[in-house]
């Protein structure tokens, strides 16, 4: 199936899930990139209105660090007595703008939402793999004011909640989107007036559930004393895999416990989260410290990882980020207007500078023209309608891309600079059912009446794929265009257990409680075993001949060493931002790397012999059927997360422009376990580079933004 059709059927792919969405090679590439790349968001603050803050920066930079208290224990029932001021209703005064998710946001600058002018940051501080991955996210937006546990403009996993008032129910996502729902009646789910088509239901106890029909992921919210809010207390999938969020008697976060065995522990000081640990993942079975957080004036001002060095934020009195300084002392500055929009940004030395302007609505069309000018003087224009939707993007050469979206922010048409239009049609449930290409050829998706998953996909030209499912939504069969059938079986927990190809050859897979494979036996009886650490990462692979390869990792999930069956060892070291500093091969030859501003490679010193390879990220990920893209029909439980019979290594050297963004973003705090290949869709969207956006180079890095229809599930 072609890449074009994969993109056209991305919504169908989301319905199917992502476990079989990528071949092992692409999964490995994505995995290393997510483990090794550092996205830096640059900004500049040169306007005189912000000069008064400059003298305070030194004090702010050094503030906020405290000794950490031990995590508290408590009832964890989720019905605490702590009271916060509700800010949710303010966030949904413009429902269509508030309901936009990351895949419909067009980023400019470093990074700025070009529809609203607001600066945003997406971070993942812990990512634990499994059939239902567990993420601890931390996100920022300059215009957001409903955050709690990390300050008003930041949100995290424990900020996800419902606020209930006379008008209805407001859902606040940790991923910075918000939705307004009417009050549901028991047994009668309701949908929001704008945004994703999730279903809010009232339980018999007076609590709430919020269901994503595309994945059958259910969020459970427990109503708090006073009845004005309901906190997120559990997330579960269609097979009952779940994780629960615990709070103390005052409603302060305590922990997140996963059915696969993970427990994230949270330390709080007053109304702020100050540390994140993984239970039992440290030396001698102690808890492993993942992140520390410091605050100044209640605003997040420092984030420490395992390097012991902070990522520092300088904020104004309202919590807007005026500058950030990474763990290598690269600094970015921001200037805002009175509407919290970025107007100027760039490095402290003027590098990677961007300027922004925001036009007034056209009296006839209501369209506003927003402009971004980079350090080379090249200007890109964005035409924005009253719903904060980008309807046109005009590059510095005058080439225009045009977009049409419906009231739920779904892409319905995309016209390229040559006037070629691709159209998208959805059914009443919001599922993509038809894509019409510029040449008139169509791709069609048919959905089943029970599980709501694609049962038939017809590509342009008539090539047809068919899929079968059980009552839990697991794919049980795939019939390719030639009529060959591949069958899938599952264990009692819903993890993939067998794959039988069209010739009757069966591969057997054994998974752990999290859904990660620990053994694969091929049709010939050869077995490969995988040992994992407390983070779910591959610690050892024992091949069919008994040879053992062992791996060590940094707390951020970067490869630290690999020892082959013959005892030879390769090692790698990194700086505080995860840039590769040294790579030592089995012969003891070392290649060293040096960096200048914004993690740009400045020097490489190596032996005269061939340079040692960069870290191999082992994947225990298994691909049971021929290499097939998401559009060919994958399902969330047909491939165990993280199994592969092969491992590959990247060419020597640190990440380059092809593996991480040339135009940096504030360095994401790497997850505790990026390298374990969580291949099923998380309950919370993963905060990656917005899909449909091609980085390109620093000066022209934004290729034509194509919107969510170009998304490949990750």
Written description of the protein model:
The strands form 3 sheets. The protein has a 42-stranded antiparallel sheet that branches. Strands 3-4-5 form a 3-stranded antiparallel sheet, with no helix packed on it. A two-stranded antiparallel sheet has the order 1-2. It is mainly beta and 714 residues long. It is 6% helix and 36% strand. It is globular. The protein has 2 domains: 9-36 and 448-662, no CATH class; 48-398, no CATH class.
Number of helices: 6
Mean pLDDT across the residues is 80
The total number of structural domains is: 2
Terminal CA distance? 18 Å
Largest sheet: 42 strands, antiparallel
CA radius of gyration is 25 Å
β-strand amount: 35-45%
Question: Quick one: how many beta strands?
Answer: 47
What helical percentage do the residues reach?
under 10%
Low-confidence segments = 1-77, 622-714
Report the principal-axis shape.
Answer: globular
Structural class: mainly beta
């Amino acid at each position: 199936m072609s890449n074009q059709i994969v993109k056209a059927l991305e919504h169908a792919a989301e319905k199917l899930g992502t476990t079989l969405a990528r071949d092992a090679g692409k999964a490995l590439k994505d995995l290393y990139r997510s483990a090794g790349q550092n996205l830096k968001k640059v900004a500049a603050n040169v306007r005189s209105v912000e000069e008064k803050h400059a003298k305070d920066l030194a004090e702010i930079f050094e503030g906020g660090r405290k000794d950490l208290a031990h995590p508290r224990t408590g009832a964890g029932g989720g019905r605490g007595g702590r009271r916060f001021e509700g800010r949710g209703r303010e966030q949904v005064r413009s429902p269509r703008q508030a309901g936009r998710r990351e895949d419909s946001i067009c980023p400019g600058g470093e990074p700025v939402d070009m529809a609203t002018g607001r600066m945003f940051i997406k971070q993942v501080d812990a990512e634990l793999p499994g059939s239902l991955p567990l993420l601890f996210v931390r996100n920022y937006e300059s215009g957001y004011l409903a955050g709690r546990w990390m300050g008003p403009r930041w949100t995290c996993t424990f900020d996800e909640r419902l606020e209930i008032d006379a008008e209805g129910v407001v859902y606040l996502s940790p991923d910075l989107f918000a939705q307004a729902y009417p009050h549901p009646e028991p047994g009668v789910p309701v949908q929001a007036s704008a945004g994703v088509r999730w279903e809010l239901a009232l339980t018999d106890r007076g609590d709430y559930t919020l269901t994503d029909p595309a994945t059958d992921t259910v969020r459970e919210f427990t109503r708090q004393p006073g009845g004005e809010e309901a906190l997120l207390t559990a997330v579960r999938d269609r097979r009952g895999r779940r994780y629960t969020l615990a709070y103390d008697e005052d409603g302060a976060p305590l922990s997140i416990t996963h059915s696969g065995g993970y427990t994230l522990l949270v330390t709080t000081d007053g109304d702020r989260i100050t540390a994140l640990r993984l239970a039992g993942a440290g030396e001698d079975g102690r808890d492993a410290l993942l992140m520390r957080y410091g605050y100044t004036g209640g605003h997040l001002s420092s984030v420490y990882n395992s390097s012991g060095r902070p990522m520092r934020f300088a904020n104004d009195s309202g919590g807007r980020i005026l500058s950030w300084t990474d763990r290598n002392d690269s600094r970015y500055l921001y200037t805002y207007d009175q509407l919290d929009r970025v107007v100027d940004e760039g490095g402290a030395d003027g590098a990677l500078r961007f300027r922004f302007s925001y036009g007034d609505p056209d009296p006839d069309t209501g369209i506003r023209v927003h402009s971004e000018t980079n350090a080379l003087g090249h200007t890109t224009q964005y035409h924005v309608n009253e719903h904060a939707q980008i309807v046109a993007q005009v590059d510095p050469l005058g080439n225009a891309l045009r977009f049409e979206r419906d009231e739920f922010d779904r892409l319905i048409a995309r016209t390229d600079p040559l006037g070629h239009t691709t159209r998208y049609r959805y059914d009443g449930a919001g599922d993509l059912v038809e894509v019409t290409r510029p040449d008139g050829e169509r791709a069609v998706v048919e959905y089943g009446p029970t599980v709501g998953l694609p049962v038939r996909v017809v590509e342009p030209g008539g090539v047809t794929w068919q899929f079968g499912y059980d009552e839990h939504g697991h794919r049980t069969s795939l019939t390719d265009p030639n009529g060959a059938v591949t069958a899938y079986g599952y264990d009692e927990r819903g993890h993939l257990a067998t794959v039988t190809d069209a010739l009757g050859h069966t591969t057997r897979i054994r998974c752990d409680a999290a859904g990660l494979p620990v053994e694969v036996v091929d049709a010939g009886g050869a077995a490969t075993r995988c040992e994992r650490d407390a983070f779910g990462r591959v610690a050892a692979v024992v091949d069919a001949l008994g040879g053992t390869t062992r791996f060590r990792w940094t707390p951020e999930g970067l490869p630290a060493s690999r020892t082959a069956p013959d005892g030879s060892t390769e090692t790698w070291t990194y700086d505080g931002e995860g840039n590769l500093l040294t790579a030592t091969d089995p012969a003891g030859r070392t290649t060293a790397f040096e960096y200048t501003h914004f993690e740009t490679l400045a020097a490489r010193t190596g032996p005269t012999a061939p340079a040692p390879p960069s870290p191999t990220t082992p994947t225990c990920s298994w691909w049971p059927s021929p290499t097939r893209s998401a559009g060919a029909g994958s399902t969330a439980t047909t491939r165990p997360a993280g199994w592969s019979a092969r491992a590959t290594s990247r060419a020597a050297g640190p990440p380059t422009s092809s593996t991480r963004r040339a135009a940096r973003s504030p360095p994401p705090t790497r997850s505790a376990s990026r390298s374990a290949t969580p291949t099923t869709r998380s309950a919370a969207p993963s905060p990656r580079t917005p899909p449909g956006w091609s980085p390109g180079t620093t000066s022209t890095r934004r290729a034509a933004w194509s919107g969510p229809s170009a998304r490949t599930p990750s």
